[in-house]
Design a protein that fits this description.
The structure is a single chain. By secondary structure, this protein is α+β, with helices and mostly antiparallel strands. About 50% of the residues lie in helices and about 15% in strands. The strands form three sheets. Strands 2-1-4-5 form a four-stranded mixed sheet, with no helix packed on it. Helix 8 crosses helix 10. It is globular and about 70 Å long. The protein starts with a helix and ends with a helix.
């Protein structure tokens, strides 16, 4: 695998010395890289329309890979249609996911790895989603820093309507051709985009979109928004606006910070025009301009409001505050109400469904879910919300353990001072620090 990575890197460096277009990428989809993709693939992945999983494909792995590569060399390889499943969203709507056949997943994985190597040097620092060594907490921290340490007075909170379903294939291929000269590699990506979708046994054409769940979908989404949003913001917005401007994006979720209200309003108008050109649409009910920053609270009070507005990003609510001594401005975060309600509901549903298990197994399962919640939400300034979730979990556990039979199992004293002392729940503690050296210097 290391030889293939070095080969791709050589092709990229050669492109940088010539016309900027990388060549000879399709040759890196070979038996070694596909076997490595198979090794890394989880056995628990959902199966595509052919019903083949990792175990079935592994029984004759070498032969299967050779047949796959032979089809690719002849040009007869065609990805099978993607199986579409729907999962519920927080707002009651359904999110469509695409599940590829196992063999196609291997090819998607290698394509994604190649694209990451080609585009990582090109992507902007403002992009955090589905990139190596980057995560949600870094994006949250960047928003805090841009508000707290820079001249941010207004925030544009934006949401793209059905982004993954509306990616324009023609524009996406143009963006890829701008950086890649290998026709075989580009044709392979185009085949995946046009593979079709199987919905309840009916095949439908996929004229637009790149399904969530597809192995290469995250990096293709980043490439699309790199040109549609990131590059445009840097070249046309940041360089030409007089005030300070900042963009923080996590895949299709993004926040923009502005010093001046008129530039925030101008950006909002231009953003609609820009997205319309590339077949994207803003969800107007979730997109707005709000006053936010170190002067927002005083300004809102003068206008007759009680406090400054807040906005949500990546499961957190951002709000204006100050340090404990009320000497310095602070941008703080807490768990958003929508996410808090969702997590409480999920915890209650799990305990309800498993309440007849042995108590030790129930506590173990609850602790696994608490640990996952803390890993994401136990950040600076969010102690109240995480402890609130901890106490709500206690009450959920107490309630459902007493619904295991007609006879009540525990009094509160027996539950709190007896059971939870023997089988304790994990108490929240700081997992991720959003502070930096600047804050410590204040």
């Amino acid at each position: 695998m290391m030889n293939e990575l070095l080969g791709i890197q050589f092709s990229i460096e050669k492109a940088n010395r010539t016309d900027g277009k990388v060549q000879n990428l399709a040759c890196f989809i070979n038996e070694n890289t596909l076997a490595e993709a198979h090794h890394r693939m989880s056995r628990n992945k959902a199966k595509g329309i052919d019903g083949v999983g990792k175990d079935e494909y592994e029984t004759n792995l070498s032969q299967n890979l050779k047949l796959l590569l032979n089809k690719m060399k002849k040009g007869s390889y065609r990805p099978k249609p993607i199986r579409r499943v729907l999962i519920p969203k927080d707002n009651g709507k359904m999110r469509p996911l695409g599940i590829s056949c196992y063999e196609d997943k291997l090819v998607e994985y290698v394509i994604a790895e190649i694209l990451i190597m080609v585009y990582e040097p090109k992507f902007y620092n403002c992009s955090y989603g589905f990139r190596p060594d980057r995560n949600c907490h870094q994006a949250v921290k960047e928003v805090i820093e841009d508000v707290q340490y820079h001249k941010t007075n207004y925030v544009v909170e934006a949401d793209i309507k059905g982004f993954f379903d509306n990616v324009n294939h023609e524009w996406l291929m143009k963006f890829l051709k701008h950086d890649i000269a290998d026709r075989c590699f580009l044709d392979l990506i185009n085949k995946f985009l046009k593979a079709g979708i199987m919905i309840n046994g009916t095949l439908e054409d996929s004229e637009t979109g790149t399904p969530q769940g597809n192995g290469a979908s995250p990096v293709l989404a980043n490439i699309y928004l790199h040109y549609v949003l990131d590059n445009w913001f840097d070249v046309k917005i940041r360089s030409k606006y007089k005030g300070e401007t900042y963009l923080i994006r996590y895949c299709d979720d993004f926040v923009c910070c502005f010093q001046n209200i008129w530039e925030a309003q101008k950006f909002y108008r231009e953003l609609n025009i820009r997205f319309d050109k590339y077949s994207l649409e803003l969800a107007l009910e979730k997109t707005r301009i709000l006053e936010f920053g170190r002067f927002a609270e005083k300004s809102r009070i003068v206008q007759g409001y009680r406090k400054a507005e807040t906005f949500d990003f990546l499961g957190f609510t951002f709000y204006c505050s100050s340090d404990r001594k009320k000497e310095y401005f602070r941008c703080k975060v807490k768990t958003s109400k929508k996410k808090f309600r969702k997590k409480v509901k999920e915890m209650s549903q799990w305990v309800k469904e498993h309440r007849n298990l042995p108590v030790g197994e129930i506590i173990k399962g609850v602790n696994i879910r608490l640990r996952g919640h803390y890993q994401y939400y136990c950040v600076n300034d969010n102690q109240y919300e995480t402890h609130k979730f901890f106490f709500r979990t206690k009450w959920i556990l107490f309630y459902w353990l007493n619904r295991r039979s007609e006879k009540r199992s525990y009094t509160w004293d027996e539950f709190y001072n007896g059971l939870l002392r023997t089988l304790p729940l994990i108490v929240p503690s700081l997992k991720v620090s959003l502070f930096n050296q600047k804050l410590n210097m204040i």
